Automatic annotation (TrEMBL):
Transmembrane segments: none annotated. Pfam families: T2SSE. PANTHER family: PROTEIN TRANSPORT PROTEIN HOFB HOMOLOG, TYPE II SECRETION SYSTEM PROTEIN GSPE-RELATED. SUPFAM superfamilies: P-loop containing nucleoside triphosphate hydrolases. Residues 254-268 form the Bacterial type II secretion system protein E domain. Belongs to the GSP E family. GO terms for cellular component: plasma membrane. It comes from Paraburkholderia aspalathi. This is Type IV pilus assembly protein PilB. PROSITE patterns: T2SP_E.
Length: 437
């Protein structure tokens, strides 16, 4: 009876290790101890520990890097689990991993991210730095969430800024680039970037800071959190539990002799009030808002509690943006669309003469998706004197939008259709990202 119990225990241990009973078993306790000792250093995927969970994590992160995924989702289910990669804003599932490796995989990630592996009842945040290949080290922000069937993990890749970061790389057309460049090089004023979560607002702000970053300026930024480190910029992360909020950091910045202030997001009346007053007192303030388009940002700030006369004096420019996926140039193909469908999408008769948009097809180069990378579409609205008068008069969003249209400010939908026209994206992608005006 004792021999039978010993064989059963040995078989169970072998299955948990992903090995056959006849193979020698690795010392799991030694592996965990090594992981804990090395957690203070940059983790290396070429770990001498060949445990199946370690190898699976290696393969998963390398696949995410190869496919340029922005997020990794590790999702438990009742009878297994799945891993999905967010590529160009869309989730794609990879081959389902072995069910028995789920807990070991999640524990491995939590150890590397310096999270409490014994705590599974509340969400946790962590961060890990790991070498995905020789000479390439990547940072990940990790969040755990307790669900019905176990902990769900999301790993956000924290890429460094692109080497070619510029207004052109953001997707701005020549006229928009000229207007934005003039606004961010002004000595003072408030410049806002609007759009939903995941529309590239933070990258746009980083681009502005990158252009303004020189030894003659004092640049300060407050974010929640500061994910990408920028040399030459004084970056602060919000810590609300300690009392360090956006508004508190902003007030501290004003005593730091700043030239340019970047606020990650205007969320409340206190932050909005300090930001607007800072823009009125000789500072250039860059920030973001969650609105559908540029004219709606004015109404949002007034609703938050900013006085219209202060806003009219401080606001210099508002931009709105979305991200659309780029068609794979290796496999894109013309898509036959009727003239009625193109007119309904917003194209004029001038654009319909012997022209058809491209559509996604899918090939080996784009992993069968049909798209590779994303590009921004923008609405750039400089604040004119006529617009300031409407702001002081508490004009509604529709009135501001009509005035912007008369001042030749293109809508987000117009910008997206321009990308369809030049073959950068598909009509379906443009319509999904923007609303028909």
């Amino acid at each position: 009876m004792q021999d039978s119990l010993q064989r059963t225990a040995s078989l169970r241990a072998a299955v948990l290790d992903g090995e056959s009973p006849a193979q020698p078993r690795h010392n799991a306790f030694a592996a965990n101890a090594n992981a804990s000792v090395n957690s203070n250093q940059s983790a290396n995927l070429a770990d001498s520990d060949n445990a199946p969970a370690v190898r699976l994590l290696t393969d998963t992160l390398q696949e995410a890097t190869r496919r340029n995924a922005s997020d990794l989702h590790i999702e438990p289910a009742e009878h297994g689990w799945r891993v999905r990669l967010r590529i160009d804003g869309v989730l794609h599932e990879i081959p389902q991993p072995p069910a028995h490796l789920r807990d070991a995989f999640i524990t491995r990630v939590k150890v590397l991210a310096r999270m409490d592996i014994a705590e599974r009842r509340v969400p946790q945040d962590g961060r890990l730095r790991i070498a995905t290949s020789p000479g390439r080290v990547e940072d990940y922000r990790v969040n755990s969430l307790p669900t019905l069937f176990g902990e769900k993990l999301v790993l956000r890749r924290l890429d460094a800024l692109p080497t070619d970061l510029s207004l052109d790389s953001l997707g701005l057309d020549p006229q928009q680039r000229e207007a934005v460049d003039a606004a961010i090089r002004a000595p003072h004023g408030l410049v806002l970037v609007t759009g939903p979560t995941g529309s590239g607002k933070t990258l746009s702000l980083y681009c502005f800071l990158h252009m303004l970053n020189d030894e003659a300026r004092n640049l300060c930024s407050v974010e929640d959190p500061a994910e990408i480190q920028l040399a030459g910029i004084n970056q602060v992360s919000v810590r609300e539990k300690a009392g360090l909020t956006f508004a508190v950091a902003l007030r501290a910045f004003l005593r730091q002799d700043p030239d340019v202030i970047m606020v990650g997001e205007i969320r409340d009346d206190e932050t909005a009030d300090v930001a607007v007053k800072a823009a009125q007192t000789g500072h250039l303030v860059l920030s973001t808002l969650h609105t559908n388009d540029a004219p709606a940002a004015v109404a949002r700030l007034i609703d938050i509690g900013v006085e219209p006369y202060n806003l009219a004096a401080a606001l210099r420019m508002v931009t709105a943006q979305r991200l659309v996926r780029r068609l794979c140039v290796a496999c894109r193909a013309p898509a036959q669309q009727s003239a009625a469908a193109l007119r309904a999408a917003g194209f004029t008769d001038d654009h319909l003469d012997s022209w058809q948009p491209f559509a996604a097809t899918g090939c080996e180069a784009c992993h069968g998706i049909g798209y590779r990378g994303r590009v921004g579409v923008h609405q750039v609205m400089p604040v004119s004197d006529a617009m300031r008068e409407l702001i002081v008069a508490r004009a509604g969003t529709h009135e501001l939008a009509r005035l912007a249209q008369t001042e030749q400010v293109a809508t987000l939908h117009d910008a997206a259709l321009a990308r369809v026209r030049d073959g950068t994206t598909s009509l379906a992608e443009a319509l999904a990202a923007t609303e028909v005006a």
